Amino acid sequence: MTAAVIAVSNRKGGTAKTTTAVNLAAELGARGRRVLVLDLDTQGHAGLGFGLRPGPGEPTVHDTFRGGAPALARAVRATPYPNIDLAPADRGFEVGPEPIAPASLARALDPLRAHYDAVLIDTSPSADALLVAALAAADHVLVPTLLHHLAVDGVGQFARSYVRVAATLNPRLTGISLLPVQVDMRVTMQRETRARLAERFGETRLLAGIRPDIALAEAFGSHRPVKYHKPRTRSVVDFEALCDHVCFRVMQH
Ligand SMILES: Nc1ncnc2c1ncn2[C@@H]1O[C@H](COP(=O)(O)OP(=O)(O)OP(=O)(O)O)[C@@H](O)[C@H]1O
Ligand SMILES: [Mg+2]
C-alpha cells in the first residue's frame, strides 16, 4: 500500500478546507481505510476537529521543517476515531532564518506512505512556503469553494500555484477536484458560479459538493467529525459521496 496524498487547499479563507479534511478522513476511516491527517495550518483547527491539541513541547507536524522524517514520525498520534492518525499543528510556528525547503515535507512523508491508504493535508488560506511544501508532497488537490462570485477568482489564483508546483517541483501532482460547499442550487448566483467554474476548469473536475448543514459547525464545536456527532444528517451523505470520488477516482489513479 502506498498512500494517495491529497492536499485540501484554497487561497480563500473560510471555504471549509478543515471541515473537508476532518470529515473526509472520518468517512475514509469508517470504511477501513488508514488515514493520516497533517494539520499544516498553524491555526490547529484540524486537530481541534478531532479533539486533539498538543501540549507545550509535544511534537508537531511543523517539527518536520527542522527535523525531517524522524520528526514527522514522532508527531503522528492516533485520534479517538477508527483508522485516523493525526500530526497536529504547532500554533506558534514561524518560519525561521532557514527557509522551508519546498521538498522537505514530501521527503519526510515518503517513509510513512506505506502505512496509509490516504494522507490528507489541511492547509492555511495563504500562498506561502507551507502551501508550496504541501503541494510538492501531494498527488491530488481538493479545493473546497463557496459558490460566490469571488470563488472563480480565488480558485483561479490557487490553480496558478498548483500549475507552477506541478510543472517545476512535483510531477506526481496530477489531479485537482473542486468541491462546492454550502451548495444550494435554488440560488441563481450559485448556479451561475457553478457554470463558470465548469467552463473554466472542466465539468469532470467539479464535484457535486456539500450542502449547507449547521450540524457541521455544531460537530466542530463539539470537537468531533459530524459522522460521530449526528450520523443521519445530510452532510454525512454528501461526505459519503465525496469519499466515493476519492476512493474510486483519486486513490485508484
Ligand atoms: N456545508 C456547510 N454548512 C454549514 N456550515 C459549514 C459548512 N462547511 C463549513 N461550514 C462552517 O464554515 C466555517 C468555516 O469552515 P472551515 O473552518 O472548515 O473553513 P476553512 O477553509 O478551513 O477556514 P480557514 O481558511 O480559516 O482555514 C466553520 O464554522 C464551519 O463549521
Ligand atoms: Mg482551516
Gist?
The chain has 253 residues and is of the alpha/beta class. It has a single domain (4-250), classed as Rossmann fold. 42% of the residues lie in helices and 14% in strands.
Write structural notes for this entry:
This protein is α/β, with parallel strands linked by helices and 253 residues long. The mean pLDDT is 96. Helix content is 42%, strand content 14%. Bound molecules: adenosine-5'-triphosphate and magnesium ion (MG).
Q: What structural category arises from helix and sheet content?
A: alpha/beta
CATH topology grouping: Rossmann fold
Q: Give the second-level CATH assignment, the architecture.
A: 3-Layer(aba) Sandwich
Large-scale geometry: globular
Parts with pLDDT < 50 across at least 5 consecutive residues: none
Looking at CATH, the homologous superfamily is: P-loop containing nucleotide triphosphate hydrolases
What is the residue-mean pLDDT, rounded to a whole number?
Answer: 96
Q: What is the number of helical segments per DSSP (H or I, 4+ residues)?
A: 9
Output the strand order for the largest sheet.
Answer: 3-4-2-5-1-6-7
Radius of gyration (Å): 17 Å
Key features of this structure:
Rossmann fold; binds magnesium ion; 42% helix; alpha/beta; seven-stranded mixed sheet; single chain; binds adenosine-5'-triphosphate; 253 residues
